[in-house]
Amino acid sequence: MRRSHIVPIFALIFLIPASWQIPQIQADETLTIFTNANILTVDKAFQITNSMAIKNGRIVAVGLKALDLANQEKSARVIDLKGKTVLPGLMDSHAHPVGAATYEHDHEIPDIQDMQQLLDHISERAGKQPEGTLISIRQVFVTRLKEQRYPTRAELDKAAPRHPVLFSTGPDSMLNSMALQLAGIDRNYQLPANSSGLIVRDANGQPTGFMRAFSPVINAKSSEKVPTRQETLKHVQSLFADYNKVGFTTIADRGASAGSIDIYKSLYDSGNLTVRMRISHTFPSEMTTWDVTEKAIDEIIHHPLRKTNPMLQIIGTKIWLDGGMLTGSALMQEPWGVSKIYGITDPNYRGVQRTPSTNLLKMVRKVADSGLQFTAHSVGDGAVKLLLDVYEEANKVKPIAASRPCLTHCNFMTPDSIRQAARLGVMVDLQPIWFYQDGHTLLKQFGEPRMSRFQPLRSMIDAGLVVGGGSDHMQKIGSLRSVNPYNPWLGMWIAVSRTCRFLDQPLHLEEGLTRKEAIRLYTIENARILFLENEAGSIEVNKRADFIVIDRDLMKCSLDQIKETQVLETWLDGRPVWTKSFR
Q1: Which are the contacts of 276, defined by CB distance < 8 A and separation ≥ 6?
Q2: Which residues contact 203 (CB under 8 A, 6 or more apart)?
Q3: Nearest to 376 by CA among 307, 429, 452, 431
Q4: Beta pairing class for 85-88 and 38-40
Q5: CB crowding 492-501: b at 16 or more within 10 Å, else e
Q6: E strands within 225-346?
Q7: CB-count exposure of residue 16 (10 Å: 0-12, 13-18, 19+)
Q8: Tens digit of each residue's pLDDT, the chain (583 residues)
Q9: Spatial contact of 522 and 95, defined as CB atoms under 8 Å apart
């Protein structure tokens, strides 16, 4: 999640309405029986059957018992699925829906593939904005640019000589000369004493414009239109419709502010929430004191949406422990290595720890003791080890497995950390799309032996870890046009094939999954991570009728056809929320 989202979270965290009530939604009382189908139940045995029955939003029978109901109850509605494949409703364990949905409210953002496209876009914005207003370019990752590097300050100056420019990729950023001046950053500038960031300087001690894990305050106005609350609701509703279109019935917001939660609550109250929302509420953990952090955690613990509700519930908390893999600031156990891609000149540089260790154990204990799930943005194997060691300490006083402690991202994970996580009952929220998008750049940076630690899914599953698939969707509506694509079929294909774009061979294919395991990533395994396994994640009697109808048999189609899968229908609580005529 980009840093610019973090500041308003802290400002809004205490603004929780005391009178929130959760309304009840009426389920369809009609007995409906689906026949002539290819149903992948994703139960423990991964049973495949041909029929199921639903009533009052629940699955009441599967297989022959469903057919028996069709014969017993003449008033039942029978739907012939004509041999189509049925799966449980899919789940994304990591997204940022409100920010993603409103990202293009002011103007459409092009798909930027190379440096010239980036600089042309900045020049275009400069021609449309008043002089002196901030041009902010967010989440154009250098790993995904053809040149595989940051723009220079001189390039940004040339593209927009009369505007401050902030090129931000999550926790790291490049500023042009005007932005540096307006931020008051010169050769004499010193970071705050409690900052974990870094200002990169040239041989003469002058700032180059590059900042690691530090978000400067640039004293310039933005000309971008900010969406109203009603516009935000409309954007988010449109995004949720697109989630439904690709098969999602459950989404986890990993890092929600009070403002985002209010949007979800409004959609729920109005009957317009078409995905189950599982929320990890953020709280201040960087550059702050324990009393501020503790008060914020207490507010979350006593939030009305802590109450069990399968449609809208706060299940845990989220903080940011290290920087980014795509930006060169993830905390690693071994040095990154000198790099032109990431602008690294120190051969001993290991990345950035954003949340200090001082109060980390107290945070974990307080959150876990309340029954909430603690998770942290932990990208590098150094951050993973750091958090696992804190979990280990907390576990010595009181077992923490019941709170389902989690690792978010963990793109690099050593064999020792995999074993430690499995022993402690720690779960993993991982994004296969990063493997596809960024593997070729990381291979260039780290080399093939070290890349065996990059999303080692096979080793994780074999060790008994619960691993769920997410997208880290942050920008744009559109499952393939979004900056981090949220198309789950692409994610499944990546997890099986171990394919990286721009590479002609799979990368460490021995860490690939079977098709069944890839399906589980986005169904029952995510359900376990999100406290929903008793309600959803598989097609079993008494579970909620969340399921999708797709256009192909995932178990028999060619491997490459998995990523082309189309959803024909999406059902939530026994009601269709997305349909594409096929009957």
Answers
A1: 249, 250, 251, 310, 311, 312, 532, 536, 546, 572
A2: none
A3: 429
A4: parallel
A5: bbbbbbbbbe
A6: 248-256, 276-282, 312-320
A7: middle
A8: 333 332 233 333 333 343 444 344 445 788 999 999 999 999 999 999 999 999 999 999 999 999 999 888 888 999 999 999 999 999 999 999 999 999 999 999 999 999 999 999 999 999 999 999 999 998 888 888 999 999 999 999 999 999 999 998 877 899 999 999 999 999 999 888 777 788 989 989 999 999 888 888 999 999 999 999 999 999 999 999 999 999 999 999 999 999 999 999 999 999 999 999 999 999 999 989 999 999 999 999 999 999 999 999 999 999 999 998 888 999 999 999 999 888 888 999 999 999 999 999 999 999 999 999 999 999 999 999 999 999 999 999 999 999 999 999 999 999 999 999 999 999 999 999 999 999 999 999 999 999 999 999 999 999 999 999 999 999 999 999 999 999 999 999 999 999 999 999 999 999 999 999 999 999 999 999 999 999 999 999 999 999 999 999 999 999 999 999 999 999 999 999 999 976 6
A9: no
DSSP tag of 333: S
User: 387-425 burial, b if ≥16 CB within 10 A, otherwise e?
Assistant: bbebbeebbeeeebeebbbbbbbbbbbbeebbebbbebb
- φ/ψ (deg, to 5) at 138: -120, 140
CA distance 174 to 151: 7
Label residue 287 exposed, middle or buried (CB < 10 Å: 0-12, 13-18, 19+).
Answer: middle
Q: What pTM does this model have?
A: 0.91
Q: Which of 70, 65, 138 is nearest to 102 (CA)?
A: 138
Cα distances (angstroms) measured from residue 415 to each of 32, 224, 418, 449, 497: 48, 46, 5, 13, 21
**Identical fold at 108-212 and 229-576?**
no
The answer regarding whether domain 108-212 maps to CATH 1.10.10 reads no
466: left (phi over 0), alpha (psi -120 to 50) or beta: beta
Report the candidate in 145, 146, 136, 140 with the shortest Cα–Cα distance to residue 107. Answer: 136
CATH architecture of 229-576: Alpha-Beta Barrel (3.20)
Domain ranges of the chain: 108-212, 229-576
How far, CA to CA in Å, does 71 sit from each of 53, 66, 77, 174, 494? 12, 9, 11, 68, 43
Token pair recorded at residue 295: 């008060």
Whether residue 147 contacts residue 155, with contact meaning beta carbons closer than 8 Å, is answered with: no
Q: Which two tokens stand for residue 332?
A: 């690693």
Q: Write out the two tokens for 536.
A: 């959803």
Q: Provide the angle, in degrees to the nearest 10, between the axes of the packed helices 360-369 and 381-397.
A: 60
- How many residues does this entry show for the chain? 583
Helix (H) or strand (E) holding 179: helix 177-183
Contact yes or no for 82/36 (Cβ under 8 A): yes
Q: Give the whole-angstrom CA distance, residue 526 versus residue 530.
A: 6
Give the CA angle between residues 63, 68, 70 to the nearest 5°.
100
Cα dihedral 492/494/496/501 (nearest 10): 160
Are the C-beta atoms of 387 and 417 separated by less than 8 Å?
no
